[in-house]
Automatic annotation (TrEMBL):
Keywords: Membrane, Transmembrane, Transmembrane helix. It comes from the Eukaryota. PANTHER family: FI18259P1-RELATED, ZGC:174356. GO terms for cellular component: membrane. This is Major facilitator superfamily (MFS) profile domain-containing protein. The keyword Transmembrane helix applies. It comes from Rhizopogon vesiculosus. It is a multi-pass membrane protein. Gene3D superfamilies: MFS general substrate transporter like domains (1.20.1250.20). The chain crosses the membrane at residues 127-149, 161-181, 193-216, 222-243, 305-331, 396-417, 458-482, 488-510. It is found in: Membrane.
Length: 524
């Protein structure tokens, strides 16, 4: 793991957490990044652990409801495979799952916006506690739905699935990344984001390893929910007691003043009732304003964040379907069984953990002197004494690692699809894990583009745009896969490679001169 300086845990939300601003260190205290690691592991673990049994729970609820409507539900409530093996139940199941896929996408976008809003007003810690509490309530409602009568159980299940939209891996990854950005100096932000995403992937790997095994051994699809609720309950206590606030009140107040000033300017342009109504409807999409080009000091437009948004929507559009297409190829062409599929997923996840927690932080440490070109700030910004906000090193290292990661990703998927032995498949899965650095490093590039007070908002905007790419991926890439999968099964991977490399090439437009610069000092 990268060498992380210890940071004293503040007892007041007014105290900053950045390492340069901490002077009194205690050997008995851990840095906020160290305290964040258990949260990253646990939230990803509990958000993916029940995934193996969710479809079975939904199918049982649909079957019970259908049998109740038709008056054929057994008196003891036992559901056999024969009773549920009817075309109507299958049709309902497909409809529900398709609807859930759309709602997950919409919920992820709304969740990022809501978490951004709450964390900017109340702080990151209350937002984290809110996500954890919502997850506990979601799983509790789902368990209760299995013991209630048909209609009441179905209603409770719907409520649980509604909460699921706001507590999935997407939401928990977002709030953990925001917290990691808050507690990191500009120089340490990239390795810290890499480390914390690596630990989160470890939680996902653990869930893949034990989720299906627990359900199989106990023959109880609800056991993973009991375990998740227990873990989340302990996590809530842990966060309440030990995790410090990363976005102190002074910063929240400063951000609020900026937002009010902007709203006052916008209000002068909003005279009609229609404009006011449109403004109210647009509130959930407020973070997307961060994607608009800004004006540089010389009057030219700064397109850096807009380029980042275009990059992520194109790359995600191609990449979201690629793992699914690869698994389908392995199952249909090579007859993969569940054990082989699980082994391949575990290999890829463990490779990602190694890459993000160990390899990338050390690679950055080795390469940074080679990229030692210093970015000289304007004369009126020199000697400000605040090195935690703006890095004096070039962003080219982050740009190059991100681009190379995408190229490796493209080549690895082609290798995975064209090789024919299980050993080569595992090697390809390992290389896919090596390409995972693009996600955290790209997000570090994004947040370096804006005022530190608005880093949470711009991260929310990028996650929302990424969500659009995830939604469009089955439509675009899925259509190609359906049309060519039987005759040209490799074509989808070559198209994937061409698209992600084209998207990565957009990052060559990222320039140091376009990243955030502190406001010019005025002279008396």
């Amino acid at each position: 793991m990268a060498s992380i300086p210890d940071i004293s845990r503040s007892t007041s939300e007014h105290d900053a957490l950045l390492p340069e601003r901490q002077h009194a260190l205690s050997y008995n205290q851990f840095s906020p990044l160290t305290l964040l690691i258990p949260l990253a592991v646990v939230t990803r673990l509990t958000s993916t652990l029940p995934a193996t049994t969710l479809l079975a729970v939904i199918q049982a609820a649909i079957c019970r409801l259908w049998l109740t409507l038709n008056g054929t539900l057994p008196p003891d409530g036992h559901l056999s495979k024969e009773l549920c093996a009817v075309p109507e139940v299958d049709k309902w199941r497909v409809t529900v799952i398709s609807t859930l896929s759309i709602l997950d996408w919409l919920g992820g976008i709304v969740a990022c916006s809501a978490i951004s809003f709450i964390s900017s007003r109340l702080g990151r810690k209350p937002a984290i506690l809110g996500v954890v509490a919502a997850s506990i309530l979601e799983y509790t409602l789902l368990v209760c739905s299995q013991y209630l009568p048909a209609w009441l159980g179905a209603s409770t299940l719907v409520a649980s699935l509604f909460l699921r939209m706001f507590t999935g891996p997407w939401a928990v990854t977002f709030i953990v990344n925001v917290y990691a950005v808050d507690i990191s100096s500009a120089e340490e932000r990239t390795p810290n984001l890499s480390v914390i995403n690596g630990w989160a992937t470890l939680g996902q790997a653990i869930s893949f390893a034990i989720g299906g095994l627990i359900t199989t051994k106990t023959n109880d699809p609800l056991i993973v929910y009991y375990i998740s609720v227990a873990i989340l309950g302990m996590t809530f206590i842990y966060v309440s007691a030990f995790l410090p606030e990363s976005f102190p009140k002074e910063k929240r107040d400063a951000l609020r003043r900026q937002q009010l000033a902007r709203q006052n300017v916008d209000a002068s342009a909003r005279q009609s009732s229609l404009n006011r109504l449109i403004s109210m409807i647009a509130v959930p999409f407020e973070p997307l304003k961060q994607l608009a080009p800004t004006r540089r000091a010389d009057g030219r437009r700064n397109w850096r964040v807009a380029f980042c948004a275009i990059h992520i929507i194109i790359a995600t559009l191609a990449d979201a379907v690629a793992p699914i297409a690869l698994l389908l190829l392995y199952v249909t062409k090579y007859g993969y069984n569940p054990a082989q599929t699980r082994t391949r997923l575990m290999t890829s996840n463990l490779s990602t953990v190694f890459t993000l927690t160990w390899m990338i932080p050390r690679l950055i440490r080795v390469l940074r002197p080679i990229y030692a070109t210093q970015v000289v700030p304007p004369e009126d910004q020199q000697d400000s004494g605040d090195e935690t906000v703006v890095s004096t090193s070039t962003d080219l290292l982050d740009v190059h690692i991100t681009i190379i990661s995408w190229v490796v990703n493209a080549v690895a998927f082609i290798m995975a699809a064209t090789t024919s032995t299980h050993v080569l498949h595992l090697i390809a899965a390992t290389i896919i894990g090596f390409s995972s650095a693009h996600s955290p490093i790209f997000r570090s590039l994004v947040v370096s583009s804006v005022n530190p007070l608005k880093q949470g908002e711009v991260l929310a905007a990028i996650e929302m745009i990424s969500g659009i790419g995830v939604f469009l991926s089955p439509v675009v890439m899925g259509s190609i896969l359906t049309a060519t999968g039987s005759k040209l099964p490799m074509l989808i991977f070559y198209i994937h490679a061409a698209i992600v490399i084209a998207a990565a090439s957009l990052l060559f437009l990222i320039r140091d001169s376009d990243r955030y610069q502190k406001p010019r000092r005025t002279q008396d």
